[in-house]
TrEMBL record:
Protein name: Response regulator
SUPFAM superfamilies the record matches: CheY-like
Signal peptide (residue range): none
Sites of 4-aspartylphosphate modification: D65
Keyword RNA-binding: no
Keywords in alphabetical order: Phosphoprotein
SMART domains the UniProt entry points to: REC (SM00448)
PANTHER family on file: RESPONSE REGULATOR RCP1-RELATED, TWO-COMPONENT SYSTEM REGULATORY PROTEIN
Record has Ion transport as a keyword: no
Domain Response regulatory, residue spans: 4-132
Pfam families per UniProt: Response_reg
Length: 154
């Protein structure tokens, strides 16, 4: 299995929980984690520390938090959809925000999915693993299309 996921999560605790869930569940792909929206876009657009990264090696999915400092998940989604290279990369918003306004704007901007993070640890682990497996194992994107997962949060 080839491919990888991008987890975008500003909370070190939540980021580590998601990574642990994927490791514990023997997730079959690579996971890159970005600590905020700026770092996620730098990685995706091969800027800064990622300037030497292959720009064609896009993640199969981005799991993205919404409420983040500097650049919100909504802003990250907007930038991904505005960029011709990234526009078709699937983005999953995973957040603790169940606000209708957040949900509506994310779908209006082209989010592929909107997941409200479970509060309890075992359902949270199962949700993260299920999302990762869906986009990397079960989903079959067109050959020239990649998926981007923008990571969970609060």
């Amino acid at each position: 299995m080839n491919g990888w996921l991008l987890l975008v999560e500003d909370s070190p605790h939540d980021r580590e929980l998601a990574l642990h869930a994927l490791r514990k569940g023997r997730f079959p792909g690579r996971v890159e984690a970005a600590k905020d929206g700026v770092e996620a876009l730098d990685l995706l657009l091969c800027r800064g520390p990622w300037a030497g990264r292959d720009p064609h090696d896009l993640p199969r999915a981005v799991l993205c938090d919404i409420k983040m400092p500097m650049l919100s998940g909504i802003d990250v989604l907007r930038e991904i959809r505005a960029n011709p290279v990234l526009a078709e990369v699937p983005v999953v918003m995973m957040t603790s925000s169940a606000e209708d306004g957040d949900l509506e704007i994310c779908y209006a901007l082209g989010a592929n999915s909107y997941i409200v993070k479970p509060v309890e640890i075992e359902p949270y682990f199962a949700t993260v693993l299920d999302i990762g497996r869906y986009w990397l194992v079960y989903n079959h994107p067109p050959r020239d299309r990649r998926v981007v997962l923008v990571g969970g949060g609060h």
